[in-house]
Structures are given as structure tokens and as C-alpha cells.
Amino acid sequence: MSFPSTLTEAMSPTAEPKSDLLAKLSEVDRSMKVLGVFFTVCGLLWLMAGTLFALVASIKMHNVDFLGDSEFWTWGRVRSAHLNAMIYGWAFNVSFAVAPWIMARLCRTRVRFTNIFLFGGIFWNIGVVIGVYGILAGHKVGVEWLEFPAYVTPILALAFAFIGVWVILLFRWRQTGHVYVSQWYFLAAFFWLPWLYAMAQIMIVHEPARGVVQSLTNWWFAHNVLGLWLTPIAVGAAYYLIPKVLGRPIYSYYLSVIGFWALALFYNWAGVHHLIGGPVPAWVISAGTVASVMMVIPVIVVAINHHMTVVGLHREGWASPTIRFVVFGAINYTAVSLLGSAMALRSVNEITHFTHFTVSHSHHGVYSFFTMIMFGGIYYMLPRLLNREWPSAMLISLHWWTTAVGVTLMVIVLAIGGFIQGLQLNAIDPETETAAFEFLEVMRATIPYMVMRSLTGVLITIGHVAFFINIIWMLSRRAADGSESKPTLLTPGA
Amino acid sequence: MEFGGYIILGAVFAGLLFLGAAAVLWWAYRDGQFSDLESGSRTIFDDEEEPEGAQTDFFPTKNPEDLDGPPRRGE
Question: In the prediction, which pLDDT does A491 show?
């Protein structure tokens, strides 16, 4: 049975008898090779660029003269360049690599018409390059998480349209009856993101809303990029990788389905907790706070499922690079989400808002949770795509220890510094009934924490360099040659 | 655009999203996606290449046999 030759034919509901086209996993892997490697390498390059921007921005927080002579490297630009390079460069590219690959494996189909996806990917990265350059050149939009200049929007929207349509087609081509929970998460993410992005671009950039509606839209979008794009991608990947690597089905599949629908129901409302204390109708804030607290349901469900799947197999998990990274990410998903629910309470938010505590929380979510799971995904995916082993266990270990320790210390340091900063900002002198600390005093008190953040950033950078070397080394090697090492149980020619 | 315009725009998008989610949930129910969930959790395994009960990822220099591990893929 041959494949349908045209896109229209391939989309026809009667085009494909299932028994003839059910692909082996190794066949699926081979068909995803070009796409997986392309997006992994693009993501890797953005990870390195974003790390450089992060280091510069971090050093400037305690050494303001650092690279102070060039307008390209002023803090306001380089910090936004860091954020956008990491989100639209690293996080999106690695999502485009890992999620469709897992989707293709679950669909058990050899992928087709990959040029559609590749075309979208090339345009996406061209858009991000122009966007980051635009930010550094001073053309940025002054809205957090949407800093790319307005002229980049059509490029990114068009690119994502190609990518999104291809992923939907991939699901259409599935040769399996059951839709696994990871597929639910991925499909939802690929539907949710264009909705978020279109609404935010219309209401903030192209037909800007006035007043608090703009702020509400901003935080609805920014919070949901994490909650309705990065979270379903990472949770979906964890739901596949943990049972797959350990060879044990997920503890409770019932819970996983409940978790998905609870996320879909509650997360969309939660972003407005970023505006607690702002001139926003009280009922809007209350709705956001309630939804944030309700997020405890899907979070606990996922935590129970992941923990109970791994329990009793800790030794085996430690022997797997994938499981080390993914379980670290899964644990931090629980931690960051519960902390986020607590931060949505007015009494807590009054202290943590406008402080480094929020920065700690962002890195906890995007790095400790999302990025670590994606690292695990790449450690599992690349050997299968390339049919070759990782060249250096030492570099994997170095990557793991430096990033795990580095980001944990960073999150703790910023949380402590931010909490103290919040207490000082709110402190009232009982005698004069005015602010107990001058603003400059409060800022100066944060400097030791900023220095420590830079040091933890150096640690994470070492890990990224190790990861970079290992991938480049791996790409330059020959395919599996029957060597003794066997991290992925690959056999020559398999 | 006036405030009312945003409300209408938001309501249309939100309505479409809600209807879409309801339709997907209905399709999943009709298609039997929720009828036998526990066997669904085993669909990620493959008897030939990555079977249930077999660990499929190790550090490069570690020997899977040290962990009483599974046979290599293809064996």
C-alpha cells in the first residue's frame, strides 16, 4: 500500500487502511529525523544566545556600568532580548522538536509533507532573529512577553499557521485508535497558542485597548503562554517519557484525563492575579484568584501520577539521563504551581508583587519545570532520530548537576531576596507613618542577592555549554556502530 | 475600537473556544476514548521494539545488565 501522493488525498477520511500503514517506532523516528534535528539545533542556538543575554542582564543588576557604552546592551533591551530569545527561540523550537516527535510515535505513522513544517520552522526562526534584533535596536513594544516589534507579528503568525496545521494533519494521519493523554495535551496546546497570540496581538499591538483592558490582556496572554502552551507541552512529554523509559504504565490513567480537563478549565482564568492591587474590578481579580487556587486539582493529580509511576524504580531512574531531567522537572511543576496558587492570594501577593520573588517564580516555571523536561526529551529523542549514542556521559552528568543545582539556588536566592524586598517596600515607620525604607535603600539591599544570581547563572551557563558540546559532538559522529555503550537499547541498523 | 467592541470580540472568541472544547469532549465520549482507560495507558508500549517492563534509556557508559535490565532493542 503506497502513501497518498497529494495533501488533499492524505486528508481524505477513506484514504488509509490502518493495517497497512501502521509504522514501527524506528520507522517513525527515521521519518522525523530532519525535523527533530532542525528544531533541536535551532533551539540549542537560541538557548546559548538567551543565556548570553541573561548573563549580561544579570551582571548589570549589580554592576550598572557593565557594557554601559553601547545602547544595544542597555538593561532594558538586553533583558527583553533574553526573555524573548528564551521563550520564542529556545522554548518554542524545542517544543516543535519534542512534541510532534512524540505525537508521531503515538500516532504510529511515518510523517509526510514535512516541507510544510520545515517551511514554518524556517520562517519562525527568521521572525525570531528579526524580533530579537529589533529589541536590541530599540524597536521593542513596551509590553512584557510581547516585546517583538509589530512588524514581526505577521511572520510569526504565518509560520505558526504552517506548523500548527501540520501537527493537526499529523494527528489526522494517526494509525491508532486510542488517543493517549500526551496527545490531548499537545493538540490542545497547538490550538490554544494561536488563539492566545491572535487575541493579544489584536488587543495590544494592532488595535490597542485602552487602560486596564490592555494590562488584563497582557497578563492573560503572558501567564497563559506558560499555562496553555509550555505547560501542556511539558506535562504531555512527561506523561510519555516517564512510563516509556521505565517500562511501566502511568499509575492512574483516570487521573491523567481529569488533570487535563481541569487544566483546560481553570488555567485560562488565572493570569489576572498579576494585577492584584491594580485598578481592576474586584470580581475579575477574585475570579483569577479562585481559578489559581483551583489549579491545585490538576497539579496534585499530575504529581500523584508521576510520583506513583516512579516509586520503587528510583535506582533505574537515576541511571537514565532522561528520567533525571524529567523527574526533576515534574517535581518542580508541583512546587511552582502550588507556590503560584499561594502567590495568587491577596495577602501573599501584596508582599511578592513587584519584587524579585516574581522573577524567581518565572524561572522556577520556565526553567526548573519546562526546560528540564525538554532537556530530558532531547536526551531520549536524539539518539533515536540519529541512531547513535550520546558521546559523553560525563558531559550529560555535568549538564545535569550544574543546571539542577544552579537553577535551584537561583530560585531560592531570588525568592528570599524578593520576599525581603517586598517586606521592606511595604514597611511603615510607626512614628512618622511613612515608608520605613527609602526606595534606594531597598534596592541596595538586593545587591548581594543579585550577585548570587549571577553566580548561579554562571553555573547554569556551564551546563548549557556541556549540552551544546555534546549535541554538536553527537551530530558529527557516525551512526551506531555496535559499540559497547547502549543508553537507548539501539542496535546497529535498528 | 471601543470597549463594547472588545467585549464582543472576547465573547465571540471565548464562545468559539468553549463550543470547540464541548465538541471535542463529546467526540471523545462517542468515540469510546473514555471507555477503557487503563488499557489505553499501555498503548505507548510496543511488544517488538520498546515493550512494557523494559527500561529504554541509560547513561552511555552504564551497562544495562548491571541493573538487571531488559534486552537491547532488536534482540
Answer: 43
Indicate the SS3 state at residue A428.
Answer: strand
Residue B46 placed within a domain: yes
Query: Where exactly are the structural domains of chain A?
Result: 248-478
C-alpha cell at A275: 494585577
Residues of B with CB below 8 A from A489's CB? 50, 54, 56, 58, 64, 70-73
State pLDDT tens for residues A254-266. Answer: 899 899 989 988 8
Residue A476 φ/ψ region, left for φ over 0, alpha for ψ in the -120 to 50 degree band, beta for the rest: alpha
Closest CB to B34 among A243, A257, A491: A257
Residues 6+ apart with CB under 8 A from B7: none
Residue A480 sits at the vertex; the CA angle it makes with A477 and A486, to the nearest 5 degrees, is 110
Non-local (6+) Cβ contacts of A181 within 8 A are A236, A239, A250, A253, A256, A257, A260
pLDDT for position B70: 45
* B66 confidence band (pLDDT: 50, 70, 90): low
For residue range A129-180, list pLDDT tens digits in order: 999 999 999 999 988 889 999 999 999 999 999 999 999 999 988 888 899 9
Q: Is the residue at B74 inside a domain?
A: no
- A152/chain B closest Cα distance in angstroms: 22
Residue B69's pLDDT is 46
Residue of B25, B58, B65, B73 best to disrupt the A interface, most CBs of A under 10 A: B58
User: In terms of Cα–Cα distance, which of A14, A33, A384, A22 is closest to A174?
Assistant: A22
B75 is a domain residue: no
CATH superfamily of A248-478: Cytochrome c oxidase-like, subunit I domain (1.20.210.10)
B72 in a structural domain: no
Number of domains in chain B: 1
* Residues 11-30 in B contacting A (C-alpha not used; CB under 8 Å): 13, 17, 20-21, 25, 28
Give the domain extent around B61: 3-67
